[in-house]
Design a protein that fits this description.
This protein has seven helices and no strands. By secondary structure, it is mainly alpha-helical. Helix 1 runs antiparallel to helix 7.
């Protein structure tokens, strides 16, 4: 049991160190994947398109850097900016979404990349605190299981 807990503890520790060391690469990779999701955005039930819509609706953002990122997509030439960028679904006609100047007052202008990364960074202290607490419990479990193992080993000889 102590070895199993030690293995889990080491895996979590390595994952935390790797995440901290490669955080800039993770950001760059996220940005490129978000750009790719925008380029391949469509109205069918595509997981990436649903993720883009969810991010835009939840964080009140539009595009990667700003709402004009949609202008470089194929979806924009056909249908304009997606409705998930609209501040109000009632006041967001499709003809306004096809023109960036008309769409600007009706859509969120901030980009999603900055909002996602800043949200994640602001929650890192909570994640680190919870992880530290779990690690402490794991270490206590490792120590107690080693003590129990030692106790069992010492008392076996007395029982015979």
């Amino acid at each position: 049991y102590a070895m199993f807990l030690s293995l889990i503890f080491l895996i979590v520790l390595v994952a935390a160190v790797v995440g901290f060391v490669f955080r800039h690469e993770i950001k760059t990779n996220f940005e490129s994947n978000l750009n790719l999701a925008l380029r391949n955005y469509n109205v069918t039930t595509d997981r990436h398109s649903e993720a883009v819509d969810t991010i835009q609706r939840t964080l009140h953002c539009c595009g990667v850097q700003n709402y004009s990122d949609w202008e470089r997509t194929e979806y924009f030439t056909q249908r304009g900016i997606p409705r998930s960028c609209c501040k109000s679904q009632d006041d967001c006609p499709e003809e306004d979404l096809k023109d960036l100047s008309k769409a600007k007052p009706k859509v969120f202008v901030d980009g999603c990349f900055f909002l996602v990364t800043s949200t994640m960074e602001s929650k890192m202290s909570v994640v680190a605190g919870i992880s530290f607490g779990i690690a402490c419990f794991q270490l206590i479990g490792i120590i107690l299981s080693c003590c129990l193992s030692q106790y069992i080993t010492n008392n076996q000889y007395e029982m015979v």
